[in-house]
Amino acid sequence: MGYYEQHIFCCTNERKKDAPRGCCRSKGGEEIRAYLKDRVKELKLPKTRVNMSGCLDRCELGPVLVIYPQGTWYHVKNKKDAEEILQTHLIGGKVVERLALDDKQKRL
Ligand code: FES
Question: Which tens digit of pLDDT belongs to each residue from 19-53?
């Protein structure tokens, strides 16, 4: 087992406004990261860490995050989605299917 039991990487990468692929920061990636970090701290989730990440190469699907060690990828549109991931995945141990990237999206 790694140092953390759940390690969440939230893309907060920023590109120029006219970048063809867009970026997670312009779609709220930083707000998602900050929300999850605050909530994990507030709930004192053990061995759980939320980090910002550079581009995860799923820009068109952003904002995206990935949770290890499971390697579960999510598209997270807002804080409500982030809370659902926190409650269902991080606390409940179940994948939030409606927000998870499918196998094709993970292989972009
Ligand atoms: S900018 Fe977030 S995945 Fe590329």
Answer: 999 999 999 999 999 999 999 999 999 999 999 99
* The model scores a pTM over 0.70: yes
| Residue whose CB lies within 8 A of the most ligand 1 atoms, among 27, 31, 55, for a mutation test | 55
User: CA-CA distances (angstroms) from residue 49 to 52, 75, 86?
Assistant: 10, 18, 12
Instruction: Compute the distance between CA of residue 101 and CA of residue 50 in angstroms, rounded to an integer.
Output: 19
Domains contained in the chain, CATH given:
6-106 (3.40.30.10)
How far is it, in rounded angstroms, from Cα 16 to Cα 29? 15
Q: Which atom of ligand 1 is nearest to the CA of 11?
A: 2
39 with 92: CB under 8 angstroms? no
